[in-house]
Batch of 4 targets.
Target 1
Amino acid sequence: MIVDLFAGPGGWSHALAVLGSRDIGLEWDEWACKTRAAAGQLTVRTDVAAYPVEPFLGKTTGLIASPPCQAWSRAGKRLGLLDQPLVHEAVAKLAAGQDPRERLLAACRDPRSLLAAEPMRYLRALHTVGQPEWVVMEEVPDTLPLWKQYASVLRGFGYSVWTGLLNSADFGVPQTRTRAILLASRVRTAQPPEPTHARNAEPESLFGPGRRQWTSMAEALGWGATDRPVPTVCAGGGPGGGPEPFPSGSRQSLANARNRGTWTPHPNAAPHPVAPYAEGGLSWSLRSNNQANATTRLLSEPAGTLFFGHRSNECTWVATPRRPGSTNDLTVVPDPIRITASEAGVLQTFPIDYPWAGNKSQQFQQIGNAVPPRLAAHLLAPHLGATSMPDDFSLAA
């Protein structure tokens, strides 16, 4: 079997399904488990730190782990940064067959920090009886020093290991989401997958076709190649609920502008209200949060890293006049519009109809924490003997 620790809403599982395989996911979050169930994924709802390794001994082909990132993420309160030495100590002790978790957990500022050491508990136990053929791990970039520690231990277990940073956009994900990756194998040389995309398209050469240009949000969402596509409206307010995203009167003015523009929705898009663009006048972008230094990307570009969890991290569509100073009455700039869960999921390369469970806040948190399935597939394919990459990782197609 393939064991997926901290399986979340199914980023790895969906990738495996497209590649013709499946895993058993261990996950604690209630709504992520419900999403997985609705997607038909095998799941054990459990605390990974408390679940025994014995059921997997001698039966595990591959181990996947994307542990919670609170100790390493640049977002949030960052209390986990103070816990990083404790996580490194836990990994070292667990690799040596000791279990210091109770003592170290009492010293942690954030009780979730020590979860990043749990994969080593599994790896150590599995190593004693028919260790996995391969291991794949993924997390935020600042996790790389921890992955290097894991790599050192795994080499001692007889694995070939590669660690490094990969940009999701280089593999067709419409998002410049950089992640720290660990790849380990007992049967082949571990190495990163070959990028399929680049910031600028590359011409064909004697060595084969060049890399394609990064996938834009417009292409992924099925809004065409124009920089004037129409973002959709989250009809019930923001990810956490709340008021309508339009102030009084602005919905009608937007509707009037829409009627004078043209837009062809993607055939698989769910029916919901749309915000119009002014013909020749506006350019839509996605803004990743509400801060002054928020990452803002045009629809003709990949999104920045999507992350959710508190109000300042809400992603919104914003429109600006493409011709500064224009007096055209179609260049009335609408208010920012919150991104929908469906759109966010597509930008993570989940299917547009992926069955996200829970309220808006719970759905967005799952999406932000998930590994993009398209990136996951590139990481998993060599271990599964997949010789070609199915090109159906959403892109709203």
Note: The two ends are 31 Å apart (CA to CA).
Target 2
Amino acid sequence: MGGLIKHVAAVERTWADFILNGPSAIGDAAAMTEEDWARRDAEFRLLPDETLAGVLADYAEVARRTDELVATLPDLDAAHPLPKAPWFEPGAQWSARRVLMHVIAETAQHAGHADIIRESLDGAKSMG
């Protein structure tokens, strides 16, 4: 669960940086090093020097920053080109509005993953 929270916070942080700074905030997937991939892999689990409280505090700070960004953006339609990556359409641009919708969708998807994990641990069903 801690890894899911870390991942969602990292994704939201990166996309907020994209809104502010453009594609350099995400980087080029083809240029990722083994160290970059290892850092990305570590994003999905709670490491020995991390605590759930620390991860939750980081997520709260990221959410606060995103809230502030949304409240102060002069134009939700301002767009940046997406960096080159096999998962992005070549030449595509995303507006701040599109990025924020992606963050909401990503958060919702991972909330579902967290619910599956919770159900497997406590046996309680949230639906059905």
Note: The mean pLDDT is 91.
Target 3
Amino acid sequence: MKLPITYSLFAVLATAMNIGVQDIAIRLYQGPFSLILSVGAGTVAGLALKYMLDKRYIFQFQAHNAVHDGQTFLLYSLMGVVTTLIFWGFEFGFNAIFEPKEMRYLGGIVGLAIGYLSKYHLDRRFVFRKEGTA
């Protein structure tokens, strides 16, 4: 039971990082493409935090060297493409349907929750699998 709680806590932390960075970015820059840029900045910040937490505390992954760590991060990021599309779909969908930014953020939170659940299973199977397993 400890693993699901820890993973959920890390998902909440990465979600808070993502939404927080988005909010800061949109406050600092309100020009052309500000929404897309803020969502992109939040996504990168949340991804980096989640990778560091997942590899160490969820999957107890130890990279052989910096190249191996970079390859693992790339694969982790690629697995996140589909889940990021889910997240963005909810966030931009809520933004299109509802007016206030808080509803857009709520859509982002819902999308991130669905995405993180999917991502755990993808990461366990393809990114942080034990040597010799598929």
Note: The chain has a mean pLDDT of 90.
Target 4
Amino acid sequence: MSTAAREKTLVLMRHSKSVQGLAGPDHDRQLTDRGRRDAEAAGAWLREQGLVPDLVICSTAVRTRQTWEAACHGGAQAEFVEYRKNAYHGGAAAVLETIREDGGDMTTVLVVGHNPAMAELTSLLADGEGSSAAHEALSEGFSTTGLAVLRWSGEWADLEPGGCELLRFHVCRG
């Protein structure tokens, strides 16, 4: 199998439950106790599924950083973690561009981001392809601590709409 045809895994994860309605900036919102438990459950689920990202692209927001930290306490692991402002400020197109630019030779990339970008990007990339059960679960909403697992065959730089298969969609609760 050539490098270009090597199958890759993309995991899109929405941050866990965060505090609502604080007077401070949205960027600084923190996880609730439930959010921390859910994120730890996500880390355990990632470990159980054998999903070990080579690269985590994480929004710079406090709640996404805390989500990944709690997931690691639950058993998640990653080779590299990069914090990107456009995973916070940008929508689905900005996150897609970040994956294309940062994915390099990585086999598994996990993005910790926000809605609606995570839901929109999942729908854009899978476009109905993959597991009908996963698409049905996704149709109920991309809840906090939701994880979409997609398969891509090709270079990250060439990742395109409709090019992935949605393998699984899971919402973690702790």
Note: The CA atoms of residues 1 and 103 lie 19 Å apart.
